[in-house]
Fold:
Amino acid sequence: MECRKEENKKNCTCSYPCGRHGICCLCVEHHRENGELPGCFFPPEIEKTYDRSVENFIKCMTK
Structure:
């Protein structure tokens, strides 16, 4: 499968400056290794806190 990096970057809502923008497979791998979820899983106001924990995701999604 060919990476659609430029197309993915258009829809990337993550505000953290890193080299994985648009390379979703690397982003998911990175966050999974750290017990986290990617920023694009969170609402914008929560994403900006950079708390990518599973606990934070559950908390914000059950409100």
Remarks:
- The two ends are 37 Å apart (CA to CA).
- The longest helix spans residues 24-33.
- Residues 39-63 form one domain.
